[in-house]
Design the sequence.
């Protein structure tokens, strides 16, 4: 994989991040690059002072109105709490954006790490719903 391709993927990912995280609470680690289904994906990696790890990636675009920014959050020994996931969402997606957590059919579950939760945000600006029921 060429350095130019890796740099291009990282630039593409970074333009969708609001960079509102608190640098006193989050440290930035070296980016990672993986190939998934033949596509090169770049990931930014952050670690909070208490050990919460966050991997951010921009998913390949399969639909003209949808492009997912994906956050994977985990601890070594426990699942992130609602408060943890709220901080991840606000720090890396922005406070005034929509984000979703999916619960797919059991037959489609993928569990590569027992203490990982995921969030997605459509970077093309189309929200999942127009209103949140109250």
Sequence:
């Amino acid at each position: 994989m060429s350095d130019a391709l890796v740099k291009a993927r990282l630039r593409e990912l970074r333009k969708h991040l609001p960079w509102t995280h608190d640098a006193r609470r989050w440290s930035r680690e070296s980016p990672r690059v993986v190939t998934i289904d033949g596509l090169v994906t770049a990931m930014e990696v952050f670690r909070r002072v208490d050990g919460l790890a966050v991997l951010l990636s921009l998913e390949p675009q399969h639909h003209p109105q949808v492009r997912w920014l994906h956050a994977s959050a985990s601890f070594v020994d426990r699942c992130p709490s609602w408060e943890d996931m709220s901080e991840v969402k606000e720090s890396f997606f922005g406070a005034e954006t929509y984000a979703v957590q999916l619960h797919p059919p059991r037959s489609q579950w993928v569990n590569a790490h027992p203490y990982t939760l995921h969030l997605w945000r459509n970077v093309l600006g189309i929200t999942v719903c127009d209103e949140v029921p109250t």
